[in-house]
Specification:
Largest sheet: none
Strand content: under 5%
Number of helices: 2
Length: 147
């Protein structure tokens, strides 16, 4: 029994490729977000350690310039952390968009796959019916010849 070719096979292949591409894009976006979160956490940890160090040696600072230098440094670090948080938020939005694209691509592919399965089942049912009718015809012809 020769299999019937699914009419939308090329579309299905295309949608599978699109889903694979969307998976890769999502993975890249997730990796970027994870790295940005790691960098942000590292920066925050550095600030905490430096704040503790500043508190320990605050009494030993000799002049106002040293205190001003620490103050400028902490101001700059707070601004860097604020920028990192903005970058993390942006990457989170990008990752969510890529996730949505991936879900849409998966849905599109699944719709075609279920249609293909339905068409295959219909074809098998049709072939089984034709085979049964053919066998019935053969048995009828044998009975007619033998009588």
């Amino acid at each position: 029994m020769a299999g019937k070719v699914f009419e939308l096979e090329q579309v299905l292949v295309y949608r599978r490729e699109m889903e694979k591409l969307r998976k890769q894009e999502f993975a890249v976006a997730k990796l970027g977000l994870d790295q940005a979160n790691h960098e942000l956490q590292r920066e925050e940890d550095i600030v905490v350690l430096l704040t503790q160090e500043f508190q320990r040696c605050q009494n030993n600072l000799g002049c106002i310039d040293d205190v001003r230098m620490y103050s400028h440094f902490f101001t700059r670090k707070r601004e860097e952390i604020k920028q990192h948080k903005g970058r993390v938020e942006h990457l989170d939005l990008v990752m969510n968009e890529k996730r949505s694209d991936l879900m849409d691509a998966s849905k599109d592919k699944k719709v075609l796959e279920s249609l293909k399965e339905k068409k295959t089942a219909e074809f098998k049912q049709e072939m089984a019916t034709k085979e049964r009718n053919f066998l019935d015809e053969i048995s009828i012809q044998k009975k007619v010849k033998s009588t």
